[in-house]
Amino acid sequence: MRTPMADASRSPATDHGRQSGVLLSILSTVAFTFIAYLTIGLSLAVLPGFVHTNLGMSAMLAGLAISVQYVATLLSRPHVGRMADAKGPKRTVMTGLTLCAASGALLLLGALASSWPWLSLGLIFLARLALGCAESCVGTGAITWGMGQVGHHHTARVISWNGVATYGAIAAGAPLGVMIDHHYGFAAIGAVSLLLPLVALPLARLKRATTVEAEERSPFRTVAARVVPYGIGLALGSIGFGCIATFITLFYASHGWDNAAFALTVFGVVFVGVRFIFGRTINWLGGYRVAMASLAIEAIGLITLCLATNTHMATMGAAIAGLGFSLVFPALGVEAVHRVPAHSRGSALGVYSVFMDVAMALTGPFGGWIASGMGYNAIYGLAAVAAVAAVILALVLQAQAAREASMTKAVPADS
User: Fold this and answer.
1) Phi and psi for 3 in degrees, rounded to 5?
2) CB 329, CB 166: distance < 8 Å
3) Fewer C-beta neighbours within 10 Å, C or N terminus of the chain?
4) Cα separation of 313 and 148, whole Å?
5) What is the residue-level pLDDT of the chain in tens, covering all 415 positions?
6) Residue 349 CA from chain centroid, whole number
């Protein structure tokens, strides 16, 4: 018979082991997100320059070459969410890795066809479309896979670590892509982007699948209606990241500055650091409070970028923006996911993530249009306004949630 004293003495070690097991399960799942976003990061800092300089295309087409990826992600998100719920997240992730490999192959062909600019651009666009679908599959699938392995009460941790993998990969991929391009040429980026997911696919196949819940799914329209307001907040907050990711290279070039990739790296490093240090504040303070504080900080960073007169000020602005944007997705995402049943959370994540894709897809062409008339600094000023609007929306959603909670508590007393 176990005594209470024995239970008490074993409890800390047991809890520590359980927490270590949870973290290991999360890390082994979001590792596939890291691979997918590393392929995205490799071309992020060099693709606009390749399209604009090597192929002789306009700044708007250079921005569109980045944004077309997010169009594909946008269109595929709802289907991918339903796929994760119905067929399982493991299959979804493996589909995404296969598409990553296809994207790398197309990017390689596009680089080799640079003597025919429009053919090269077409192949690059196809590569970006495939990569957008891959991003959707791996991103949504990995989060759903992780939640299925460690339980839905660890949702905030899974989303946070998935974000660490996402932006950590971008932070590592941007300078790595610049280095590869400098030493071996743009075609080498396509070759590496092809090999990375091919290495990851066998590892995904060996990992344990989670059980697909057989409960009747909530109607997609119902799930979407509950998640859309949070998605709008995410979209407004994501515009700043889209402007940094798409135009930071051209922004630096317009001022005659060097080391644009370093600004992306600083953004990613700060982003990851905040997830490490402050990730659990979502459980402590609540998603709404964390989202509002994060969006306000992001706005300050974007204003700093808008007013930047040298590389030090621009890098500082990117760092502050990364500090703010880091917790926006998980903070609003936790509140969104909690509004739907467990068996429909893949669909909820798909709908929620769509709005980030919308922001990223529109940022390229719209930002290019703004830059052509008002300059690149103006892009970041408008992004700051969007972040402030997201703060106001989060405040409204918090008040609405508080009213609904109070009404729910009042029902038993009235009945």
Assistant:
1) -90, 155
2) no
3) N
4) 43
5) 444 444 444 454 454 555 667 778 888 888 999 999 999 889 877 888 888 877 878 777 877 887 788 778 778 877 887 787 778 888 999 999 999 999 999 999 998 988 898 998 889 999 999 999 998 899 888 888 888 787 766 677 788 788 788 877 877 888 898 899 889 988 999 999 999 999 999 999 988 877 666 555 556 677 778 888 999 999 999 999 888 888 888 888 888 888 887 888 888 788 888 887 887 788 788 889 999 999 999 999 999 999 998 999 999 999 999 999 989 988 998 888 877 766 666 777 777 877 887 787 788 788 888 887 788 888 999 999 999 999 999 999 998 888 877 776 665 544 4
6) 12
CA angle 293, 294, 295 (to 5 degrees): 95
Q: Is the pTM of this model over 0.85?
A: no
CA separation for the pair 368, 384 (Å, rounded):
17
- Taking the C-alpha atoms of residue 343 and residue 85, their distance in angstroms, rounded to an integer, is 7
> Encoding tokens for residue 96?
């995404």
For tokens 């300089």, what's the residue?
53
- For residue 230, give both structure tokens: 């949070």
The tokens describing 50, both together, are: 């390749």
